[in-house]
Amino acid sequence: MKPDIAHLCAFFIAIAPIATACEQGVAPGPAEPVATPDESSRDKSQKDRADHGAGEEVEIQTVPVAGNIYMLIGRGGNIGVSVGGDGILIIDDQFAPLADKIRAALGALSKGDLQYVLNTHHHGDHVGGNAVFGKEATIIAHDNVRKNLAGKPAEVLPVVTFDKTLTVHFNGEAIRAVHFASGHTDGDSIIFFDKSNVVHMGDHFFNGRFPYVDLGNGGNPAGLEENIRTVLGLVKSDTKIIPGHGPLATRDDLVAYHQMLIETVAVIRGQIKQGKNLAAIQKQGLPAKWKSWGEGFISTEKWIETIYNSSTAGK
Fold this sequence. Notes:
Largest sheet: 7 strands, mixed
CATH topology: Metallo-beta-lactamase, Chain A
CATH class: Alpha Beta
Strand content: 15-25%
CATH superfamily: Ribonuclease Z/Hydroxyacylglutathione hydrolase-like
Oligomer: single chain
Shape: globular
Radius of gyration: 18 Å
Distance between the termini: 44 Å
Structural class: alpha/beta
């Protein structure tokens, strides 16, 4: 029962069958960036898959995280799950065609009702399932998520929004959503399960891969690095970390990701100061140790372009 309180992404397979970064929200809207021809083709291909039963070819994997906290891997952003006496709370919900499979995976964990959906941000591979789950559960997100989803059906929209922080007291612990601005988008939240010692990073964290940073919606590689630095000061050595994309992570994995951000941003900004243009920087590439990080949805060339565009725009 529902409580009383009331771009699109391309896919890659890396370690587990998960999709990576999303270029847009549920559907193109005024808040989304203008896509290049290549991005438009990619988004159309993604939309075709989502609209024509893409869920039929996906299996939902359930990964135990800590105690009553789980991670679901399917297609799109990783889903965090809290189960217990109060019912079920999920973080993000992938795509609507996967709703039945997600529901089945949740049912295998608990017979309780889905009570809350926390959206980490507005991209379609994280909020696509709102169209289904929003009819039965309360959706919670940052103020900018609702703004970025303006014009979508009512069941897609968050009904509880917040500015800086929000706490849901659920299943015996405080589940804190904290807004981290100017990282992946302008509306991202990172979710802290204090008692369980678990953090869901949303798309602030692509484990072992270059991230997608949505420059058109307030994202910023330098801001992302600063936000990850802040989170590293908050998590413990044994904290379990659910990334937006990629396998379940440790603090060491997040440290490696942070180091990548520091070094790659510094390399590209240094070459910009030398007067090199984008083509020259892409031709030179990045140090060899980061080669495998460009094997996902965001290639090395695309990551260089993101840093370049952000840096030359003064962001």
